[in-house]
C-alpha cells in the first residue's frame, strides 16, 4: 500500500514514474490509467466515449479482471488511514471491536450505497461535470491535497483554497470513519463498489481448500472488517459437506486477514489458480 | 511475523528510505525564488488599474478568481465539454512540475464549475513553454495531443500605452521570446519605435508576458472567448494610435504614457492570481 503510494510521491521529486493520482494516472508516459468509476462519470457527464478514455480505462479493467477488488485492500491509501483511525478509536476512545452489523441493516446500507451511485451519476449527467470524482472523491482530494501542499511549500503557484478544501474533505472522511467505522468502505464508496463487481469474474478468489479441517471457529469472520458473509458461507458448505469451495463476494477486498487468522492455518487461501 | 504485516513493514521501510533520500536530494537543488511582496501592497495591487484594456473590459481578477481561465495546450475549446471531461486527477499539474515549468495549476475557489480544473496561473513568472507534455499524460480527452501551431490557449495582447516599442523605443523582447517566431508578430516601424503587434496566429503560451521588461509586463493573455469580445475595439484603438499625427502622438507619449511607464518600473503585482 505504502509502496504504491511511494511511487506516486516520486513525481514530486521530478521522477516521472507515475504521474497523476489514483483517479487518473500515466505510467512512464506509456500507459494511461483511469479509475473505472471516474470513467463511468466522465462518460455520463460528457455523454460521449472517446478513444483515449477507453484505452486508459482498459488498462485498469485488465488489472482488476486479474485482481478483483484487491484495489481496496492493497492500493487505496484510505484502507491504511482508516486502520490508523481504528487504532486511535481503540486506544484514545476505548472503543470495543466493531460489533457485527445485523444482516438486515447491512442489506439496507448496501442498497443506500447503490442509490448513492445512481444519484451521483444522475448529478453528473445533469450538471455535465464528473460530480463525485471532481468534487468529493476521497482519492482525488487526497492527491490534490498532497500535490498542492508540496507545491505550496516549494513556492510554486498553487491555489491555496484548493489545499484547504481538499484537506478539509480528507479530514471529513477521517472524522466520519471515527464515528462510523468502515461504513464508507463497506457500503458507500462508489469506487470500491464498482471494483467489487469485478470480484464475480476475477481470476483472484477466496478458496477454501479443505473444508473438513474447518472447525467453524469463525475467527475469519471476526477478523474480517468488510463484513464478507463468511459465517453463512461456511455453514452452508459444511451442511453440504463440500470439500473445496470458492467464495466470490463483492465485499471481499483480498486483504488476507482471514487467511492469516484462520484457526486451521491452512483452510482459507487467496488463490489465483483457476 | 505474519505475512501481511511483514509485507506492510517492508514497504513502509523502503518507502520511508526512498522518501528521505529523495527529499535530501531535493533540498540540495535550488528552487526559483520569487521576490517577497508585502501583504498589503499585494492587496493594493489587486485594486490598482491593470492593463488599460483589461480594466476597460472588466477582465480583472476577483479575490481568488483569475481574470481569465487560460487552459493548458490541447484543451477542449468548448468550456463545458472541457469541464465534463476533466476529472481533476492532477496529472497535467504534476507533469508540468516534473518538467520544472510549474505553469499549470488546479483552480481552487474560482466558481463551482471551474473547481479543480487546470489553468495557467501566473504567466509573468511561470508561462507555458508549449512542451506539450500535459496532453500526453491526460487520461481523459480533456487535453488531447495537438500540434503546437494548432494550440489555442488564448491570445496575447500588448498594452500600447505602456509598451516600450510603442512609446519611442526599440524593444524586441516579446518577439524574441515567442516560440512561434515571426509569423505571429507584425511590426509597424515608425519614428515612435518598432511598434510590435501580435496577430491572430498567437497561441497564448505567455512566454512574451514573462520576458517583457516593463514592470509587471505590458502584455496580458486573454482567452479566445474574451478576445472575441474585445477584438473590434482593441484593433480600433491600435489603428487610431497609428493614424495620429506627430503632435498628438507626442502628447500621448510624453504626457500620459511615459509617466505611467516610469511608475510601472517598481510594480510587482500578480495579475493572474
State the main characteristics.
heterodimer, A: 274 residues, mainly alpha, Alpha-Beta Plaits, 3-stranded antiparallel β-sheet, 14 helices, 8% strand, globular, B: 273 residues, two-stranded antiparallel sheet, 6 strands, 7% strand
Explain what you see.
The complex is a heterodimer of chains A (274) and B (273). Chain A has 274 residues and is mainly alpha-helical. Chain A has two domains: 2-196, no CATH class; 205-271, Alpha-Beta Plaits (2-Layer Sandwich). Chain A contains 14 helices and six strands. The longest helix of chain A has 25 residues, at 103-127. The mean pLDDT of chain A is 82. Chain B has one domain (39-264). In chain B, the strands form three sheets. Chain B has a two-stranded antiparallel ribbon with strand order 1-2. A two-stranded antiparallel ribbon of chain B has the order 3-6. A two-stranded antiparallel sheet of chain B has the order 4-5. In chain B, strand 4 and strand 5 form a beta hairpin. Chain B is elongated, with a radius of gyration of 22 Å. The interface between A and B is large, with 65 and 56 residues.
In one word, what is the shape of chain A?
globular
State the total count of DSSP E strands of chain B: 6
The residue-averaged pLDDT of chain B reads: 79
Q: For the CA atoms, what is the radius of gyration of chain A?
A: 20 Å
Topology (SSEs and partners):
The complex is a heterodimer of chains A (274) and B (273).
Chain A: H1 2-9, E1 18-20, E2 24-27, E3 31-34, H2 36-46, H3 51-67, H4 70-74, H5 77-91, H6 103-127, H7 131-136, H8 138-153, H9 160-179, H10 183-188, H11 190-198, E4 205-208, H12 219-223, H13 230-240, E5 245-247, H14 257-261, E6 268-271
Helix pairs in contact in A: 2-6, 8-9
Chain B: H1 3-28, H2 39-47, H3 52-56, H4 79-85, H5 91-98, E1 104-106, E2 118-120, H6 134-137, E3 155-158, H7 173-177, E4 185-187, E5 196-198, H8 207-211, E6 219-222, H9 224-242, H10 246-264
Antiparallel strand pairs in B: 1-2, 3-6, 4-5
